[in-house]
Amino acid sequence: MKLRDLIGERFKEKPADATVVSQIFLLRGGYIKHVANGIYTLTMPAKRIIAKVENIVREEMDKLGGQEVLMPVVLPRELWEESGRYQSAGKELLRFKDRGGREMLLAMTHEEAAVAMARDEATSYARYPFMIYQIQTKFRDEPRCKGGLIRVREFTMKDAYSFHTSQECLSKFYEKCKQAYFNIFRRIGFEVVAVGSDTGMMGGSVAHEFMLLSDAGEDSIAMCDACGYMDNVEVARTEIKNEGQDSPLKEIHTPGVKEIAELEKFTGLPAYRMIKACAFAVEGSQKPCVAFIRGDYEVNEAKLRKALRKNVFPLAEGDECGLVMGFIGPIGLNRGDAIVLFDESLKGCKGMVCGANRKDYHHMGASCGRDFSPESFYDLYKVREGDSCPKCGAKLAIRKGIEVGNIFQLGTKYTESMRMTYLDENGERKVPIMGCYGIGIGRAMASAVEANHDDYGPIWPFAIAPWHIHICALGGNAGMKKFADEFYEKLLGKGYEVIYDDREVSAGVQFSDADLLGVPYRVIFGAKNYEKGLAEIASRDKKFKKLVPLAGLEAEIEAIIAEEKAKL
C-alpha cells in the first residue's frame, strides 16, 4: 500500500470533542470517521486491525470446539417475547415495523436467536455439550455514547453460546472460556483482569467482566492488593459496622435542610449517623421506591435493579411521587405509598438522624429495631475507596477499567422460557443449561491504543498492526527513490505487509504520519545515509534503531519479522 493512495487523512490537531486517548488517535490517524452519535465508518487501517483481532478471536474459539455461525441482525419481536425480554430490555432495544407492519428489532445480543437455532438441532443428549459463536454487527440505542469506539451504538461483537446437560459441565467450560479470553487479550497486546460482575439484563447466576485497567474506563473496580479480590462495584461488598448508642427519639425543626452535608452542619453529627432516603421511579409500577441507606454511602443502582428485578430511575425534587422529598424517613412512612427497601448498612444502627416525613422536620435518635423494624435488608450500597476487603479485611482500592469482554453462566433462563428441551439417556425430557461469552471487537482495538501509545500516536502490537513495515523515502535523490521503490516491490513480492510513503513532503510530515499509523518497524531512506550505502531501521516504540548496509537490508528485515512472528 502506498500512503499517497490511502483514504483517510491524518491531522495534527486534537479533535475538539475527543475525550480519551484512543478516540483522539483513532480520529487523528484517520482510522475512524464520525457518521452520527455513536456510529463510525472504519477506514482501511482500522479494517486491517479489526480483521486481525477477529482472527485471533476465531482461533481461540475454534480451540474450544466452537462452531462459527452467522445470525441475523434483524429479528422478529416474537423471539424476544418468548424470552420475556422484549419489554424488559428498555429503550436501548431499537424496535421498528417492516413494510408489512410486522414488529421487528435490531438485535443488541443474540441469546434468543441462538436458542431458536439450537432447539431444533440439539434434541438428544448425544449432541451435548456444544458451542456456537458469531462475529456480527449489533445495535444498542445507547444514550451516553462517548470515547470513540469505547461506547457506541453500532458495534461488532463476538458472541458465543454454549449448551450443556449439567451445571458441572457448564462450570468446567466456563473456566476454559475464561482462560481463552486471557489468551485472546494477551495476543491482541494487553493484559486484563477478570472481575465478578452483575448479570444485568442477561440474567443468570455467575458473571465475569474482563477489564483493561485504564483511566479511560467507565467501570469502577473494587480491588484488594493484599489478597487479589476483584469485583465490579456493581456487585462488590464490604463489612459495615454500626457503633452508635440508643438515645431518645425526638423531632427537630430543620428548615430547608435536605442534604446530608447540610444535616452534618446543622446537627454536628457525621454522615454515618444519618439515614439517607433515595427515591426512584420503578419501571412498570405506579409506586416509587425508597431505598434507605446509611448517610455516608450511595445507593448502587445496579444492585437496586437486581433487588427489584426492574429498571429504576432516580427521582428529583419536584417530581410528583407522593413523598416529602428531602425529608423522607423510615418512621411513620406509609408503606402503601412506596416500595421500601433497607440497605444492609442500617443493620443494628442506633441514635440516627432521619427524615420525619413532613417538610422541614427530621428525627434524631432513631434506632433500628426500636423505632422502625425492616422485614429484610438488601445489599444496595456502593463500596468506597478504603472500605475493608470482604475476603481478608485489608483496604479496598477503586480503579477504573474498560470492559472488553464478559462471560455469563445463564442457566436455564432462555432455554426454559423458549421451551428448548432434549431427551437424556433415560428418554426423559430435560432443559439444557446455557452460557454466553462476548467480546467487543472495536472496543478491543480502542483498548489496544489505550494500552500501547506515546504522545505521538498508537504503537500497534505486531499481532494486530495494520502493516508490519513502514517505508519512508525522504528527499529527492532519484537513485535512492528507485532503490526504495524496488525494495518495496521486493517485500510485497515476499508477502510482507508494507506501507510505503513516497510522497514529496518534508521528513517531519512523513514521521508525524508514521507515528499516527503506529506500524511496528520503520525503514527510512535518507539522501545522506543512501550516499553512504545505508538505511535506518527503527521500531515505533523507539526501543530499537539501527543503520544497516543496503546490501543486507532485506536480510535484516526478514530476521526482524521472523523473530516477531515466532513470539505470536
How far from one another are the termini?
24 Å
> How many individual domains?
3
Which strand-content bin applies to the residues? Answer: 25-35%
Return the structural class: alpha+beta
Topology overview:
Elements: H1 21-28, E1 32-36, E2 39-42, H2 44-63, E3 67-68, E4 74-76, H3 77-83, H4 85-88, E5 94-97, E6 103-106, H5 111-118, E7 130-139, E8 154-164, H6 167-188, E9 193-196, E10 206-213, E11 219-223, E12 230-232, E13 250-253, H7 260-267, E14 275-282, E15 289-294, H8 301-308, E16 312-314, E17 339-342, E18 352-355, E19 361-366, E20 397-411, H9 413-417, E21 422-423, E22 429-430, E23 433-440, H10 441-451, E24 453-454, E25 457-458, E26 469-473, H11 478-493, E27 498-501, H12 507-517, E28 521-525, H13 527-531, E29 534-539, E30 545-549, H14 553-567
Parallel strand pairs: 3-7, 15-17, 26-27, 26-28
Antiparallel strand pairs: 1-2, 4-6, 5-6, 7-8, 8-23, 9-10, 10-20, 11-12, 11-20, 13-19, 14-15, 14-16, 18-19, 20-23, 21-22, 24-25, 28-29, 29-30
